[in-house]
Amino acid sequence: MAVKLVRNMITGYHRENTRIWIEPTSLEAAGFAVGQGVKQTITRDAIILTRSDSMERTISKRKRPSWAHPRPLFEACSKEVTAVIHARERIDLLISDGMIVIRRERSFDLFFVEKPILQGVELQKLRLYSAPAGGGLATSALCDSGFYEAVGGLDMWPAAIDAYMHNFRGGSVYLGDLTRKHTGYVPSADVCWLSPSCVRYSSIGVMDGGVTEGHGPHYARLVLASGASVVMIEQVPQYYKSTSYAQLKKLLQPFFPYVHEKVIDAYALGSVASRTRGYAVFFREETDFEWPQLPNLPEHRRMNVKQVLGKDWEVGDWRPIEGTTMEGLLKKSGNNNFKAEKNHTLVSLESKRVSAFPYSYGKVQVTSSYLKHPEKDCWRMFRSDEMMRLMNIPDSYEFPDYMGESERVKLIGQSVDGYVVKSIGISVITAMMGTRYRSMVSDSRESDEFSHQLIHEANGQVAFPY
Question: Residue 125 in 3-state DSSP?
Answer without folding.
Answer: coil
